[in-house]
Amino acid sequence: MANIKSAKKRISVIEKKTLRNKMIKSKVKTCVKKVEAAIAQNDKEAANAALQVAISEISKATSKGIYHKNTSARKISRLTKAVNKIA
């Protein structure tokens, strides 16, 4: 355990940031799962609607520094390709 006041503060700040990052990543994962579920049911309209929400959440996470920009681009690209494959 840290003895120095600034080190104690850093620990508490890191805990808060970690919690925030987990919440946002969890939200993104939930949105991605909704898109994948719609794809599995071959529901193009629901998939497109869920895709827009997922893209928005992924972009927000990227702007907050939780995902690298290439990671978010890859996730968005793969989801979009999957939705576009639905007949």
TrEMBL record:
One of its GO terms (biological process) is translation. One of its GO terms (cellular component) is small ribosomal subunit. It comes from the Bacteria. GO terms for molecular function: small ribosomal subunit rRNA binding; structural constituent of ribosome. Keywords: Ribonucleoprotein, Ribosomal protein, RNA-binding, rRNA-binding. Transmembrane segments: none annotated. NCBIfam families: S20. PANTHER family: 30S RIBOSOMAL PROTEIN S20 (PTHR33398), SMALL RIBOSOMAL SUBUNIT PROTEIN BS20C (PTHR33398:SF1). Binds directly to 16S ribosomal RNA. Belongs to the bacterial ribosomal protein bS20 family. This is Small ribosomal subunit protein bS20. It comes from Candidatus Anaerobutyricum stercoris.
